[in-house]
Design a protein that fits this description.
The complex is a heterodimer.
Chain A lengths: L8 E13 L5 E13 L3 E5 L6 H7 L8 E4 L2 E4 L2 E2 L5 H7 L4 E4 L3 H4 L6 H5 L1 H5 L5 H14 L18 H13 L5 E5 L7 H18 L3 E5 L2 H7 L2 E6 L2 E7 H6 L4 H10 L17 E13 L5 E13 L4 E5 L6 H8 L7 E6 L2 E2 L9 H6 E4 L3 H4 L6 H13 L3 H14 L16 H14 L4 E5 L7 H18 L2 E6 L2 H7 L2 E6 L2 E7 H6 L4 H9 L7 H4 L29 H6 L4 E3 L5 E3 L4 H13 L7 H10 L2
Parallel strand pairs in A: 3-9, 3-10, 7-8, 8-9, 14-19, 14-20, 17-18, 18-19
Antiparallel strand pairs in A: 1-2, 1-4, 1-5, 5-6, 10-11, 12-13, 12-15, 15-16, 20-21, 21-23, 22-23
Chain B lengths: L3 H34 L1 H4 L31 H37 L1 H15 L3 H12 L3 H28 L2 H9 L3 H9 L4 H24 L11 H7 L9 H35 L1
Helix pairs in contact in B: 1-3, 1-11, 3-4, 3-6, 3-8, 3-9, 4-6, 5-6, 6-9, 7-8, 9-10, 9-11, 10-11
Chain lengths: 629, 286
Amino acid sequence: MNLPMDTETAVEVADLSVMAADSAGARRPIVDGVSFTIARGEVAALIGESGSGKTTIALSLMGFARTGCRIAATRLRVGRTDVLALKRRELAAFRGRNVCYIAQSAAAAFNPARRILPQVIEGTAIHRLMSRAAAEAKAIALFHALALPDPEGIGARFPHQVSGGQLQRLLAAMALITEPELLILDEPTTALDVTTQIEVLRAFKRVVRERGVTALYVSHDLAVVAQIADRIAVLRDGRMQEAAQTSHLIAAPEHPYTASLLAAAAPTPRAAPAAAEAPVPLLDIRGLVAGYGAVRSSGLPTVPVLHNVDLSIRQGSAFGVVGESGCGKSTLARVIAGLLPPARGSIRLEGESLAGRAAARTREQLRRIQIVFQMPDVALNPARTVARIIGRPLVFYHGLSGAALRRRTAELLELVHLPTSLAARYPGELSGGQKQRVNLARALAAEPSLVLCDEVTSALDTVIGAQILDLLAELRERLGLSYLFISHDLATVRALCDEVMVLYAGRRVESGRRDTLLRRPVHPYTELLLSSVPELRPGWLEMVPPVPAARGIAAGMGGRGCPFFPRCPHGIPDLCAREPPPLRMLAKGAEIACHRSEEDLLALQSQKSATAAMPPPASVSTCRELQCP
Amino acid sequence: MSEAAPALHRRLRRRGRNAGAGLVGAAIVGLWMFAALAAPLLAPHGEAAIVSNTVFGPMSGRFPLGTDYLGRDVLSLILYGARYTIGLALAATALAAGSGVVLGSLAAASGGTLDAVLSRAMDTLISLPGLMFALVMVAALGSSVPVLIATAAVIYTPGAFRIARSLAVDINAMDFVVVARARGEKTHTIMFEEILPNMVLPVLTDFGLRFVFIVLLLSSLSFLGLGIQPPAADWGSLVRENIQGLGYGAPAVIMPAVAIATLTIGVNLLIDGFAGGRRREFADGH
């Protein structure tokens, strides 16, 4: 099994195929004749949509094939090991020692019932590499290298006591502790917020460079991969389309598919139809307070999520709501849909006041607001056919039946560009993109005025997501729909919306028209969000100024002060911690909630961009010192 | 329709591995169902007719399964007894599983006070020892077919309720149910249209298990002499009546026990085959 040592290439894969038996028993390749090598100390990336075989390739490097799959290759070498020649026992010794794997969901990779440190050093014990004390010391050194807070103490915590970004870095420490010959990173930052993603990427990159780790990075996100990988291989349907140096591939993609991936990574704004100026806004929300748990004597819920949110959606416009996870954007959609009664505030639909609970609204009011959820897998009843799923609102709101019902169902399928033959299928027989189209068609069946889109493209691949965005833009034009479009992804919001509101910890921090807000952000948080979106050029990661870590969004919520203050680079120590920020109308027409004036903020921004590549400005460290009461 | 045919074919293929066991189960259960329905045609002798002078007689051409302690034909008794055992158990299981599932999904779909009241009421019932409760019921109301069915149903409803409720609570939190709520659907539509179709499989598995438990409960009641009253006899009473024959190795006591065993095994095989096939289908979807 030991092959002659090759000092240059760490991984060699020649003509790798993975065959899967489908339900009918026929064999078909899910990876087909893929060949590549990774030089020692190099970071290679596999990029492609889901189903392109990128994870399957990564797993086959560990000698692992999912149930019903078989690996075949003329050469599959990692370090000195011929992976395909390994027997079951040898494989167990090989995995976790020679090849380590970092999965997308760090939360699922840790045992919630055990402390972190024993889990991180478990690999050294299994492979009998070093003493426990040595392993712990090594783990702590890795925690330092990965820029984890409190490296000595963090190992004593349980997985739920650290944030998602920290857990992901701890998973990296777990993988690196055995000094594997190859590290596989499978979409390690996909589930993270953009601001957290930067920290994690930066830590990964540093540790990979410092220790000369050979790594295979699997992702669908070109912009992320461009930051960390030396070389990129583009996959589609199990075949390698193109492989090149990162800078070369991004500057001059040879294959048309690579070009389409590049295009999808930076969506262009869809043309917005001219909105008719109606005197009354379609949806008008004033002073909305909402949350979960029992209502206390103060009239506030136990866990308040939204604080004094105002928004107004014009007839025919697309209104974007942006923020990190936990900022309350989905709660906002639930309140508008009547699924969560607000504690305070008013919701008006074309001037008509809406009841808090869906059950207390009229059927007409319910019909006019429809909600579309993020996960197409759970948004459709798996036990009902597509025709029945789409037909239900037609029966419920419009009383259709018989031929009229069938005709309208077919029309709706055509509207979302699905073949009418899909009507007889069950959701389990559809692809993710198709499910999301059915999901949309069900909302459209009600003939709504306002569609609440809750992260509708987040669960989809970039290319499929871009198609859904196109569809949304098209439907808006054809049907005069209005959208409340919720997303953590600024690029998709930028592509579709004409007005944007930025939420932080349940408070509106900035709102205004898309072009002004996203091109020239004023509020420090909007600026942070915008600067955190990975850009499609190598070296971007080094250019972004470091951001103060998010210490849980709830950090600033107890007090009356600005919730963003603990992370704010421009905070005014006394004032911001004590006083809620006032709303300011800006010259360009946007609104922000900040103690600093517009001129102040813009001046600070230009100062900061001038010193971008330098160590963090003094104001950041002041904030850090002051944040703990 | 041309699309549906290959889909169905695929589905049947997927079921393949467990289909064997499922078919065996279906055959056994089908056979007993047929025996129960066609007992008067199949039975060589009358239900309670004393046809032989020998008690605990051996298997013979005239009495294929021997004779019992009164000299009655055991085969005929088992065929007629199938009607009681299967009929009673089926009715009681249908009642228990039906009310459990309906109440369970109602509790989950409406939540709040109704959920609390129903759940605590079921907890109270579940705390009663089953056989003891059955003895009290029979002692108070006398032993008759309706009383036996109602007793078995009451004893096994809380279990069905618990399982159905926990399933329904999970489904209730899924986005398609939330969408239905936002649409303004009434509770009963959400129950029957959105929640129930998605819990059919586990509920069916539970139905099979419960059926077996009820057969055993009724048999043990009969064994105590509190079940079906003579001269009619279900399988449990046949075992009890002929218990003295055990010493002689008489088929009269062994055969009804074998009948109970084959029925319970058959039902389990049938349900396993069904549920196993569908479960794989779900796994394939993901």
